[in-house]
Design goal:
alpha/beta, 11 helices, 5 strands, globular
């Protein structure tokens, strides 16, 4: 029997420290990350787990804002744990920690719903910035990095034959929103998209927000993944127009 997804956490309270859970089968790594995090006035480590199964169990009794998730663990790996965590109605943000850049595990973690991934040897300042960014609702992984991941692992995707329901969802977008989605998937920032389409950045931000709402996506990373899965953008930079 598979464990049920953890209950949805309560919305964060203004001014409260970011509640972080560390999930890694190496105690030394958890200790090191924990020392860095607890030294910050705006963060606290509220739980630790040695594998995905322990993480799911801990989330049933602990409110968490951000999960730092290793991927290669015994019993239940980080990708499957991420998938189950993100199945909740309002789950904590998940930040995947990997050993190698452009790892297939990072790719799978993004598809499972993670808000980003980082290397385990990342400088502490970058790790802290990533946690704060994820907590505020931003995606840590730049769309251009996600695109490199998808270009590399394109054979694992359905290659333009995305789920029929996903294809229908794209039909809800206006022509301009589809243009913006393609450019997001190609790794352009709001400013770059604005320059390309001769729009204001505020207008581009509005379009991106509507795309996320209409397609039920959490962030720009998921926009990139969906664009590849549905064939809107193809490996190598082509488009499905």
């Amino acid at each position: 029997m598979q464990p049920t997804p953890p209950p949805s956490p309560q919305p964060p309270e203004p001014g409260r420290p970011i509640r972080v859970m560390l999930v890694d089968d190496q105690v030394l790594l958890r200790t090191g990350f924990g020392m860095v995090l607890t030294a910050q006035p705006d963060m606290e480590v509220v739980a630790e787990a040695g594998d995905g199964a322990e993480a799911l169990e801990a989330l049933r009794s602990t409110s968490v804002d951000v999960v730092l998730m290793d991927v290669r663990m015994p019993r239940l790996d980080g990708v499957e744990a991420t998938r189950r965590i993100c199945a909740a109605a309002s789950p904590p943000k998940v930040l995947i920690l990997t050993t190698f850049d452009l790892d297939e595990y990072a790719f799978s973690g993004l598809k499972a719903g993670a808000s980003g991934f980082m290397l385990k040897d990342v400088p502490p300042s970058e790790l802290l910035a990533a946690i704060r960014a994820v907590h505020s609702g931003d995606a840590v992984v730049a769309p251009s990095t996600t695109r490199r991941l998808l270009d590399r692992f394109a054979p694992m995707l359905p290659s333009g034959s995305g789920q029929e329901s996903e294809q229908k969802e794209l039909n809800r977008l206006t022509e301009r929103e589809r243009e913006v989605m393609v450019l997001v998937a190609q790794g352009l920032s709001n400013g770059e998209i604005a320059a390309r389409l001769v729009l204001s950045e505020a207008t581009v931000k509005t379009h991106v927000g509507r795309i996320l709402t209409k397609l039920g996506l959490r962030d720009r990373v998921q926009v990139v993944v969906l664009a590849y899965e549905t064939g809107l953008v193809r490996a190598g930079g082509g488009t499905g127009f």
